[in-house]
Write a structure and sequence with these properties.
Layout lengths: L1 H13 L11 H7 L5 E7 H8 L8 H11 L2 E10 L6 H12 L6 E8 L3 E10 L2 E11 L2 E12 H9 L1
Antiparallel strand pairs: 1-2, 2-6, 3-4, 4-5, 5-6
Helix pairs in contact: 3-4, 4-6
């Protein structure tokens, strides 16, 4: 009986910590999704699961099967972009850019920065051991801003395969 009580207490205590970590983009995606001027794309794990069940043949079968394996470990891909001239106000655009720059990227490593005259693009990733948990592309220019978040368990071998295809 004592073991049962300890087990129940352990489950109750540790359950909140066992939830999947959310992406830094989660709240921002929810805040701006559906607003004028914003384009949102959300690709779910269910679509990746469907693709993982497909069989490919032909000359591209090997590459497609490698991509399929990589997608099986993804949780979601989210894209949120604002383009001036696509609706929405300048105030929305400025607020969104401010929210983007306020991301807490603690635990993320900067992989690459493309800093052009008119555009700044940052590639960052959050890694746990040999597994990447999230790739995040942050895009900012005078007339557009946004992000692409690829969230899941992606190892170096998978990244290598995907980059070769």
């Amino acid at each position: 009986m004592k073991k049962l009580i300890i087990a129940i207490l352990a489950i109750v205590f540790f359950a909140p910590f066992a939830q999947a970590q959310e992406s830094v983009t989660e709240k921002l995606y929810e805040k701006y999704s559906g607003k004028d001027g914003f384009t949102t794309v959300h690709i779910t794990k269910e679509l990746f699961s469907m693709i993982a069940q497909m069989n490919f043949d032909g000359e591209d079968a090997k590459e497609m099967n490698e991509m399929k394996e990589a997608m099986a470990n993804l949780q979601f891909i989210r894209i949120l972009m604002f383009e001036k001239g696509e609706g929405g106000s300048s105030a929305d655009f400025n607020a969104f850019k401010k929210d983007l720059s306020a991301f807490d990227l603690d635990g993320y490593s900067e992989l690459m920065v493309v800093d052009d005259k008119d555009e700044n693009v940052r590639f960052v990733a959050r890694q746990e051991g040999d597994i990447f948990k999230e790739f995040l592309v942050l895009i900012e220019s005078d007339d557009e801003a946004g992000f692409i978040s690829i969230f899941g368990d992606i190892d170096f071998k998978t990244i290598s395969k995907v980059s070769q295809t």
